[in-house]
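The instructor's notes for this session suggest beginning with a concrete chain rather than abstract definitions. Hand out the sequence below and ask the class to guess, before any prediction is shown, which regions might be ordered.
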Amino acid sequence: MRLHANRTYLFAPGNHERQVEKALGLGADVVILDLEDAVAVSEKKSTRGLINKTLKQSRNCAVFVRVNAYDTEFCYGDICSIVSENLDGIVLPKLESLEDLRSIDWLLGNLEQERGLPNGSIDLMPIIETAVGLVNIREIARADTRVKRLAFGGGDYTRDLGMEWTLKEDELLPVRSEMVLASRFGKLEPPVDTVFIHIKEHDAFRSSCSNILRLGFQGKMCIHPDQVPVTNETFTPDPEEVKWSQRVIDEFEKAEKAGIASIQIDGYFVDYPIVEKAQRTVDIATLLESLNLN
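After discussion, reveal the predicted structure:
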């Protein structure tokens, strides 16, 4: 599994080779080859071969595959067909229970052992996108599995609850807040947000990215090339923010050595929580720099 950032997850239909080739060169941190919604039932099995062909190609980003949901006839075959040293991760849609998650985690572990891969080398990112999944999210987040982060799927979630998915997305605030809370409760990474379906509403998309950044998300799934640079920009710490964060860390370290646990920097109160937040900012910037993405 290659080291990657988690700002942008760009979907590409696994059975459209030209779209996949284009997606791999758009600067997304992760490209998700889709076996689920973007692929007709009649082509799902044949698409597995095309995806394996793509996985063997060299690329500058991580590649995940969104398999079909656990309760479909395709999920098991999807996973067994694509697990290899070339696969970085699996996106599991519509996860609803801890039992289903552990079943998939068990399957991946056995496939890794069978195929000579390091244990836990295949990342697993479940999407929470139903009422049942949200009700069980804290149990899912706290499970001892390979899952590092959760994702939110707004399309199926609003459909499941009969909600209207508006341009401003105010109706998604409660579920997004719960995603962040549950992820922290389970000691996971910050979650990844849903796609944005109004692909021509560029200002609204930028606003959506800014809103979820403030809520505590670390990135967003994307469905259009135009969304990639905006998402990357939003979730890349500004150089001045990084500079300030490093100053906070350095000055607090000096104060701490002197037995002081709270200081002021240019009139800004700084204590341990502020320092921890500053450290996260510096860590993100350091990762992006190491990947030549900043």
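Then share the key points. The beta strands are 8-13, 30-34, 62-66, 89-92, 123-128, 151-152, 192-193, 219-222, 263-265, 268-270. The first helix runs from residue 17 to 23.
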